[in-house]
Model the fold of this input.
Amino acid sequence: MERFTSFDGTAIAYVTAGAADGPDVLLLHGFAADHRLNWVAPGVVDALVDAGHHVIALDARGHGQSDKPREPSAYEADAMPRDAQALLDHLDVETVDIVGYSMGSVVSSRLVPMEPRTRRLVLGGVGAGLVTGNLPRADIADGLLADDPATIEDPTARAFRMFADSTGADRHSLWAIQKAGIVRQRTPIGDIRVPTLVLVGRDDVLVGPPEPLAAAISGARVEVVEGDHLSAVVDPAFSKAIIDFLA
Done:
């Protein structure tokens, strides 16, 4: 992976793939994952490259091979969307399609309203919860640092802890992300003005139904593939839906 220095000195790791003259696509991964788990292993990067796109995928701060600050302040003030903007600047990108999944979709929803280079947007692995903001973030934060995962009572918090453990993520950095002030800010859904696809797994019970989210974005549409929150990206229909939409 390559690395660049973002707006505040944080080092962000990224990869590019595909023909340099193809249309640029920026991929933003989910919480406790990284670009490899979310996009490479399920075949999404290869599918996009085969369709002629130039793929840009980063490891969000606190994840993968990027720096992992452990202070909540490092994740406030739209730090992750600003990292994405800084990467686009670093690579001299002029126009870009943005594809997020789960946390990456939250970041995308904050990035797109302030990023005029955006052409199209895919919000993967999110639904009504992005509008209501009803995730138990305090419980998730507490669960990430619990000495014994068996003591975590909230099922969502327990699921996040189990996933973080399975990926070998830095749980202290993930805790800082959940504690950061950004998670309590209003997501500017109504300010998204580009063609948008809401793409979810049929059995994804974590994020809520996709229709209320699509209804909050002018002209957005919904597509459902097989799988739950973790497995939807593996369904070949997931990559196909992205490619068809970006075309």
